[in-house]
Amino acid sequence: MFCLFALPVFSQRGPTAVARSGEGAHALLRRNGLPDTRHFQQFLTLNQGRLTAKGGLIAGRTYRLPARGKASQAAATPARHPAGSSAAALHAPVFGSKYSRVRVLDRSMRGAVYYLSPGHGGPDPGAVGKYGPHRLAEDEYAYDVTLRLARRLMEHGATVYMLVQDPNDGIRDEQFLKIDRDEVTYPRQRIPLNQLARLRQRITQANKLHARHKGAYQRLLALHVDSRSQGQKIDVFFYHHANSTAGARTARNIHRVFTNRYARSQPNRPYSGNVLPRSSLYEVRNSHAPAVFMELGNIHNTRDQPRFLLPDNRQALANWIYEGLRADYKGR
Length: 332
Ligand SMILES: [Zn+2]
Known about the structure:
Its EC number is 3.5.1.28. By secondary structure, the chain is α/β, with parallel strands linked by helices. The chain has helices spanning 25-31, 37-46, 69-76, 138-155, 195-212, 245-265, 282-286, 306-309, 311-330; strands at residues 16-18, 62-64, 89-91, 101-103, 112-118, 128-131, 134-137, 159-162, 164-165, 184-185, 189-190, 217-226, 237-240, 275-277, 291-298. The termini are far apart. 44% of the residues are buried. Zinc ion binds next to loops.
């Protein structure tokens, strides 16, 4: 089924304002005592999918407002809110009913903007592996890890755009993820089958958003589960543009976390993943935000498969990527 729901990656309960005729975001924010660039960034985040293609407002429409200075100061301290409090909780239907409520634990990633691009999707399942009677589609596993990463980032105040969204598959705690074709490109564009058209569609979208967040720290991450010959076990690989120092640094920061974590969890097996320039990759080459393209393993390899099949492992991958991104943002 192809759905035409608007799927903002998250929304937040809180103050709202109705746009007046001819009013832009800056004017609306000023009128509501929210004049800073920071407010503007937050406004864009809160109203994803609700602005016009050029970032304009629609008169008469209700928009969510960022919290005022005082409130956001309070939220900026790593507060432990009592259960049931929604003071620092986001509502993100894209994560599915079980995970849609996202508690903001701290704002350490505030100001960072991420474009998350899970590989393939829509009519293209990507590589398809086999596990007993089950078929494992790359796009479903990449999507699940990417959602988990998005949620982590949001827990720490980052702005996150899921460039691919599935209207009815949130984060899934199953081993075998059903293969479907109803994913859409943000905000709700049908995904073409042609590879170039598919990549162009999401990068065009990401670059449009990139212009809106001008001046902010922005990164694009593409997550794949590669397909190699069956016998080949591969560790996680990171690619960046040869000319992008920022992309290379982000890749190395994530790689460093993986190297440390592997050393701890599997001391007898050296980690052989690597960071390499690969400027020929479409997303790496055309993204305005510095990009990192990751291959999480070989979907055909029986020893790699548990890395994606077990939901806890998918969460661990997301956590490690998050840790690398956090280190990168802190060291910017
Ligand atoms: Zn792929």
